[in-house]
Each structure stands twice: as structure tokens, then as C-alpha cells.
Amino acid sequence: MTVTLLARPDQSAPAAPEARTARPWWWCAASLTAAGTAGAALLVAANRAAEWDRGTQFGLFWLGMLVFTLPAVCWAVHRSTGPRLRVAVLAGYAGFTFLPKLLRNPFGPLYHDEFAHWRQSKQILLDGRLFEQNPIVKVVGDFPGLHSTVASVSALTGVSVWHAALLVLAAAHVLVVLGVTVLADEIWQDGRVAAVAAVIYSLNSSFLFFDTQFGYESLAIALLVWTLVALHRAMRGPARRSRAGWAAVTVMLSGATIATHHLTALALIAVMIIICLVVTVRAVRRGTPVAVPLTAWALTLAAAALVVAWLALVAPRTAGYLDPYLARALDQFAGMAGDGGGGGRTLFRASSTPWWERAAAFAAQGLAAIAMVAAALRLRRGHGAEPVARSGALAMLVLGSCYFPAALLILTPSGAEGARRSWAFSYLGIALVVAPLVVALLDRAARRAGRAVTAGLLLGACTVVLVGNTTAGMNPSYRFPGPPVFGSDTRSSIPEVRAASAWLRATQGRELRIVADRYSGLIFGSYGGQNPVTGSVTFPTYDLYLTQPGQPAPRRLIEQLDAWRFGYLVVDKRMAREVPEIQIYFETNEPIPHDGRPAFTLGQLTKFDSTPWTIKIYDSGNIAIYRFDFERVAR
Fold it and tell me: Which residues form a coiled coil (predicted)?
């Protein structure tokens, strides 16, 4: 399998010259096993320190990461490492980098979107129906690739949905690392460069936590990378049969991508278009064989047709789901440029990260920019005569350059999420064009002492980038456990909320339409099996909570709730005492002030005790549940 993956279709795989001096594989296995054990123990210690809020979790975490990753990178890049051992090291590296998220929540969903995907997979396993609407993330049901895979693994193996998801996610994580390796080998045709590209890609902000969560991008990103591998092999195919075979694989994988995740499918089409434009320009100016651009355009158009058809026929709600995020980000960006300067966000505001993590976050962007400029200058001097490889390198340079404009969106509240998600795609371009520069720097040092200094400086730069990108991409509450924090997507789930959701399901049934805030809605919608709504511009259920005591609730909203058969209201009284950590009570576009003080009074949240159309059926102190009685309103 290893030889098949790394062998290029237009030539046999010759024995690597370094294999004659390869170190014993057992020495590599023993050293990395010891390093992995020590690193895993330090990661566990970091989580324990975070639970007790000792403040040492950051240092322990990065020490644990570096204890394994640094020797693994050295083994993967060393000249004496053979191709099979290199692939094994990279697979082990991928497995170890899956540990931080695995240790964060090994027993159930924790991140916001994980609750939605866990519920969707569980529903498929229970009911056997695809494309069911999800109450937590509305468009999740339109992209069943991940959920159907997880439900199938659970049904075949007998393990729980969550543990089936962990198996799928771990496999996808390994496939991402190996896919980047193979893609880099397609372009540069050098095993060491391919290994360095995989390592550099693993430095992106999404790699450790975001693209290892139970989310559809975690699987779709692997499909994207392998689609690009198949596309390059189709363009390079020496014969019609070979080209047709890889073309079929390209179309199949692009179809699987759109069936799994909308943003990844759109990013895939964008990358394929960049490749098409580059090979077309080179065909006109450099005499590239006409079959190369024709193959690229044909496969890109086929993939685009699949994406358009899916979004138009299967998932028409996707455009409406994505549009508000971009529109609000542009409005906020315009506000920052205006006279008032409003609409922006302060980076690391009230963050508990240490100063050196914040400094690394800024330094990482500068190091990436310097590396891209140096790689572009080196690429300008020539890459070789092979047209597909040269075109692929130039296309990745264009893709990597998109990383920096997207980073500006991090300055806006609505654009920050989109900027973080785009980095997983654009960093692929950075990894593939910077990798040969790193290997060239290592090889340029003639003496062993010079190589050691160069390697040390490069490893230090990679460490800064890894720390900085991870810090910029994930808040500490996502990375570490800790005491309960209201308004946190990862720490607001307290036993009291889960007990209330279990009580409602046991006494009233499942799939009830309920009104709730963002954080109660996650628990009631996943563990409780209900259908919560947390408000929107067209359905402002948060106006129920905002209404002052003694004032009538909006008549139109009451009629809408009655017409849509909503039966229950969940009230979390912590909204009157605490401010949400992520500055959201219900949804990102809520018309609620966020000035550092609770936006609700206790009277606003307890007024439902005396309103004629609500009947209290549950109260645990913080959580109260009311049943709607709209017949009284009609009377």
C-alpha cells in the first residue's frame, strides 16, 4: 500500500539511495514509542492542571507536544530514513497529534457543532433516514457523508456512535497527513520534501483541535486533499486508460466531498480553478501539452456541476445559512474603516493565554510571510521541466498567498470564524511551496555543525508557528478542561442542565419544539433529543426573554409560536447573573447589548411564573421549564 501511494504513475518507484544507509527501524520505533509515552503523559498532566486551574497547563501541554513531535520530524526528514519508514513515522505523527482533542473529551461531544453531528449520526442509526433537519445547525442534515459513515461503523462494529466517530476521525486525520505527503510528492518528487510539507501543514491553526472534532470538515478535508492527488495524477497520466481511471477517482472524491461538507466542497472548486488557470496560462506561454489543461478543466467542470447540483437540489438552504456571516463581516470591516472605527474586535481580549503564546500568535504570521516570499523567489528560478509539477507548484503558491488577505477577517467578530476555517485550506499552499525551501536550507549546510544549527533554527521556527497558530485558532476553554463557565460552548454544560433535559425527555417525550438559549439548546437538542430554537432575525424568540415584567409579549411572536406548535420554554437564570464568555446569549446576530454586564434582570427571567400563557413544570434553581398554554391567549 505504501509503495502504491507514493509511486508516481508515469514511472516505477526506484529504490531510494538513502535506503543503503538507513538506520534500523526498531531504533526509530523504540525511540518514538518512548517519546510518545512521555508526551501523552504530559498532555494528561496538562489537562489535570487545567481542571484545578493551576496555570501550568500551557507549559505542560507544549512540552508534551514537543517531546514527541521534534524527534518524529527529525526521523521523517533525515536522509537515512527510507520511504516505508518515513510513511510509518508520518502515520505515527498523525496519530499522536490526534491525542490532544481525544484527551479533551474522550467520552462524548463537547464543542458546539459536535452536539449537532452526534445527534444527526444517532438519528440515522436509530431511524435509518438521511437528510433529516437538525435543530442545532440547520444545514447539517443536508450533508450526510460523515453521519452515514459514523452510523455505518457503529452498526457494523457494535460500538457507540461517539466511539465510532472517534475511529472515523482518527482515520481521517491520518489520511490528511498522508494525503499531503503524496500530493507534495506529486509536485516535488522528493520524499523528504513531501515529509516536510506534511509537517508544515500540521502547523495550521485547525489541525490539532478544529479538524479533529466531530464535524463534517474533519472528514471532508481528507477528501479534498486526496481529490487533488487524483487530479494531479489524471493530468499527468501517460496513457488514456491511466488518465481515465484517475479522472473517475477525482469525480468520485469530489462528489463525496460535497456530500460531506459545503465549505470544503466550495474550497475544492476554488483550488481546482486555480490549478486550471495556471496550467492554461502555461499551456499558452510554455507549450504545456494540451491534454493537461483539457483534463484539468473537464474534471473541474464536472466537480463544479456536482457541487452546484447538490446545493441547488439537495441543500438549497446553504446559501441563506452562509450569506449572513460574510455580509456581517463586510459590514463590520467597513465600520472599522469608517470614522467611528466600530465593528472591530480586540485580539486576545480577556484571554487567559500566557504572554508567550500571544507573542507566538503574531510571530507566526510574520514567519509565514517571510517563508512565502523566500519560497516565491526560489520558485521563480525554476522548478524543472515537468509541466504538471511546475503548474502544481505555481498553483499552490497562489493558494498559499490567499492565507494573508483572509487573516484580515480575524479583526471582525463575524469574519473571525470564516477566517479560521479558511486557513485549513490556504495553509496547504504554504506547506507545499515552503517545504522544498526547508530541505534546501538543510542540505546547503556543508558541515555537520552547520546542519545542526540550521535544523535547530528551523525546528524553533516551526515550534513558534505551531504554538502561535494553535493559540490564534482556539480559545483555552476549547483546548483545556476547567471549572464551569457560563456562556462557553465547552464549559457551560453543567449536570443541572443535563438533568433537566433528561427529565423533560422522560416525562414529556422527545422531538418536542422548545424555545431555549444557545447553551441550554445544545444540551436539550442533543442529550434531550428535543428540537430547540434559539432565535433568529425572522423568528426572534429572544424577545420573550427581553420583554419587561408587566409588559405584554409581542403578539405576532406568540401567534407564530402557537402556529408552529412550540410547546415548552427553557429559562436559564444564570443569564441574569453572568455574562457569556463568548458574548452570545442566543445567536450571533442578536439585538442584545454586550457591555460587560448581564443583559437580563432576574425579573425578566422569572416573569413567566405569572404570565397567563406559561405554566411552570420544572425548576431546579438555575433551570426552569415552562409549558406554553396558548389557548388562554385565544380566550
Answer: none
- The number of residues in the chain equals 635
Q: CA angle 257-259-263, nearest 5°?
A: 60
Q: Is 537 domain-assigned?
A: yes
| Residues 474 and 500 placed together within one structural domain of the fold | no
Does the residue 488 lie in any domain? no
Read off the pLDDT band of 13 (50, 70, 90): very low
Q: Which domain holds residue 499?
A: 495-634
Nearest partner of 264 among 317, 231, 210, 223, judged by Cα: 223
The set of residues, in sequence order, having a beta carbon less than 8 Å from that of 538 and lying 6+ positions away, is: none
Q: What does the pLDDT read at residue 428?
A: 96
Q: How far apart are CA 526 and CA 537, in angstroms?
A: 24
Q: Are 61 and 44 in contact (CB under 8 A)?
A: no
Single out the residue in 452, 479, 506 at which a domain terminates. 479
With helix as H, strand as E and coil as C, how does 406-435 read?
A: HHHHHHCHHHHHHHHHHHHHHHHHHHHHHH
> Do 447 and 574 fall into the same domain?
no
Domain contains 6: no
Residue 20 inside a domain? The answer is no
- Report pTM: 0.90
Residue 27 has pLDDT above 50, yes or no: yes
Contact assessment for residue 526 and residue 498, using Cβ atoms and an 8 Å cutoff: no
- Which pLDDT score, from 0 to 100, does residue 253 have? 97
3-class state of residue 615 by DSSP: strand
369 close to 407: Cβ distance less than 8 angstroms = no
CA–CA separation, 528 and 496 (whole Å): 13
